[in-house]
Write a structure and sequence with these properties.
Layout lengths: L6 E4 L3 E4 H7 L9 E3 L4 E4 L12 E2 L9 E5 L4 E5 L10 E2 L3 H7 L3
Parallel strand pairs: 5-8
Antiparallel strand pairs: 1-7, 2-4, 3-4, 6-7
Length: 106
């Protein structure tokens, strides 16, 4: 079990400039595993060896509320629990409206 405010792990992946990221995903509009670290850098976790944070699901249309949040300190993105999370409970985050719209999630 994890208490509220617990640091689970960092969001890992390839660090790209926004220009590199936009070029990589020019035809798709958005890469599904990219998260903005700061105004210049995107962390792209598209590779399956990028870590477990890439497998956190969106809470949208689940009927549940997020239990983790992405917190950037401009050097890393940390995955922090927003409430107590029981062992075996699915981790749910908020992907943000731009990503939800791009994914077509209602």
């Amino acid at each position: 079990d994890f208490p509220k405010g617990y640091h689970l792990f960092n969001y890992e992946g390839e660090r790209l400039s926004k220009r590199e990221y936009n070029e990589r995903y020019a035809e798709e509009a958005l890469g599904v595993y990219g998260i903005e670290l700061n105004y210049r850098t995107i962390i792209d976790a598209r590779r399956t060896d990028a870590g477990v944070a890439r497998f956190i699901c969106t809470y949208h249309s689940s009927g549940k509320k997020p239990n983790v949040e992405y917190q950037s300190n401009k050097n890393v993105i940390e995955m922090i629990t927003t409430r107590a999370v029981a062992a075996g409970e699915e981790l749910l985050g908020d992907y943000g409206e731009e990503m939800i719209t791009a994914m077509g999630v209602k």
